[in-house]
């Protein structure tokens, strides 16, 4: 069996075109004969890929993290659990142990450290994964429960989907913080989508530093590219960053997006640029 | 009795910090003798989450019977309650003025959190 390739589509700034590029790459893979692809939406706080791919959801299952339950009979109030916890999710005060489930990162440290064996773990649901098919492509996304702050465990669960398919396209949340790291960590290659604006370039720099720190191979896609705006190109040249594609600024793409349609199918010329991008990124990722 | 007043500075004439979890200092003062010591809470100033829990743990080490502050969030309330510490809210002005008000019975003991976490 050929190894599954995972391409993460990330950006520093939000709204640069991650979802447009990643859904287009999935369409391009499906159009290329026999390429079985999976789209994974890791933006679990506000997934939007389904609005465009319109998948048939066939399975839905909860994802949780283990949180501590203290047996007061066994507890000797030694306080070790509270010392181990880095997130104040468990504290020992006045001979009682308090737990704060929403602060818990589910590391299991308190249960391991408890000398009295008083701590067991129960599962606390933080969100759900929905999976199905969009045309010939497999589809999965996570939906974090409202009010939940801990998205990485759900993101990691989304990333573990679709391992059997030849190509996995990961739609990453914006930024450079933990949810982004959780989304791109297992990827074979990262595409950083940017736009030629001061905000776009500023955040691109943060994202470039992040992927370099992680040691992941990457390249930039300049979206909404215009001849009179060269700042993204200048930045990449200065920093020695490879540009895999420049997608021309086209109002028709925004119009198609705003209708919930895929520009891949209804904007002339767009399909060709995405087919080309898919070929180049696969070539890069295989190296 | 010993009480802890949340404060922006280390002296009795320092201004009260209305926040509990992210107060810079706790002034632990004996209401009978007026003797006091300032306890740093600085490690919690930049905590992302859980400042109230940490602060409550911190202040509980000084055997205080009550905490006097401006407002109290839900996690801090639960933790202080478990530590058997009473919570008086509505403090303002200097630590010394607050102590006088407390002694005159002008501050209310709260039966619950009066703000959400991260209220500022």
Tell me about this structure.
The complex is a heterodimer of chains A (287) and B (120). In chain A, the strands form two sheets. In chain A, strands 3-6-7-2-8-1-9-10-11 form a nine-stranded mixed β-sheet, with helices on both faces. Chain A has a two-stranded antiparallel ribbon with strand order 4-5. In chain A, β6 (119-134) and β7 form a beta hairpin. Chain A folds into two domains: 5-63 and 127-286, 3-Layer(aba) Sandwich (Rossmann fold), CATH 3.40.50.300; 72-117, Alpha-Beta Plaits. Chain A is 34% helix and 29% strand. In chain A, α1 packs across α11. The longest helix of chain A is centred in the last third of the chain and has 17 residues, at 198-214. By secondary structure, chain A is α/β, with parallel strands linked by helices. Chain A is built from eleven helices and eleven strands. Chain B is of the alpha/beta class. Chain B has a single domain (2-109), classed as 2-Layer Sandwich (Nucleotidyltransferase, domain 5), CATH 3.30.420.130. Chain B is 23% helix and 22% strand. Chain B is built from three helices and six strands. In chain B, strands 3-2-1-4-5-6 form a six-stranded mixed β-sheet, with helices on both faces. In chain B, α2 links the parallel β4 (66-68) and β5 (86-89). The mean pLDDT of chain B is 91. At the A-B interface, loops of A face α1 and α2 of B.
How would you concisely characterize the structure shown here?
Chain A is of the alpha/beta class and 287 residues long. Chain A has helices at residues 18-31, 49-53, 80-84, 109-113, 152-159, 178-184, 198-214, 231-239, 251-258, 263-266, 270-286; strands at residues 5-10, 37-41, 56-70, 90-93, 96-99, 119-134, 137-144, 167-171, 189-194, 218-225, 243-248.
